[in-house]
Write a structure and sequence with these properties.
six-stranded mixed β-sheet; 15 strands; alpha+beta; 27% helix
Length: 366
Amino acid sequence: MLVAVAVVLTGLLAGTERPAGTLVEPWIDASNRDAVAVAWAIERAREAPDMAWSGSYDACVAGESSRALALATIGRVNFYRGLAGVPATVRLSDEYSAKAQHAALTMSATGRLSHAPDETFDCLDSTGREAAANSNLYLGRVGPAAIDGYIEDPGERNRDVGHRNTILHPPTTEMGVGHVAGSAESYPANALWVFDDGVFDDAPPVREPDGFVAWPPRGYVPGEVVHPRWSFGLAGADFDGATVGMTVDGHDVELDVVTRHSLPGYVPAPIVVWEPDPSSDDGAEVEALATALTGGPWPSGRQADLDVDVRIDGVVVDGVERSFTYRVSVMEPAGTSPGGVLIDAALQGAARAATLLATAVPALAG
């Protein structure tokens, strides 16, 4: 059975240039622990191909980068989308990738990030400006590792988890990938073009009957992809008065709601974001459990999954107040880093890395 699951998931998440076939659902069955474990094993084993960048800083030539690395990057995008329960059928766009190369070059050459770069940016041209406005941007991470960073979304500027929200935006069908290699004076860079022509389209079917997109999602989730910021997005929702509650093993977890976006027409979608607070007056056991929910150490001696019940009250949809409940079962981390992680040594400090991450927000229609 596991072999069959592995074959299906390999085709679903391989970053091919076509959507997955219609014989399988375009997402992972997160209620099936084996399916999640196999999908994660495939991703962990994915090696990042060489970048083979053909450009030049001196001549300000964006060049090209390895198609194999771009496909591996889209494969990681589709893994996260599949686990989140949105269509894991994003295709690599040559057009978007060629433009994203220009954004990656100017960010790397300048050593800072902006979605509206000005004349102070090196190697900037009109294509780079366009790509910067339509892409998630990273300095210091490339390939699948950049996608891992976008999903985590660390740093004060990223409290709305905009990178994560764009990657998991259900209507998206195409993305572009730009990479430059860096040098002794420049960081390597990734630009992920995330706003395709369908960004404002109605959402396609998703795994959740209520239509929400949560991270971590309902069901089984590898501990390695659980991060300090939890999020819940829903098209058309008003989160201004929403409250969030969490329990793990029946213990209440303290948390801080850090973002509520309820703008009409907000793209990718209205969202509420919260951070579990490991500090607790309920003893060391609860503190250890809550710490694991922020991507921290696994509770000592714990071999069972962590069952986390989330409840969100006071969400207004079409003028009606609603509540949502779901359970996340966090699986014990395997203890090693996913394959293909390429992190500049200078960025090992989380605070430094967080400053080198930027989120794109598109201009709203109308």
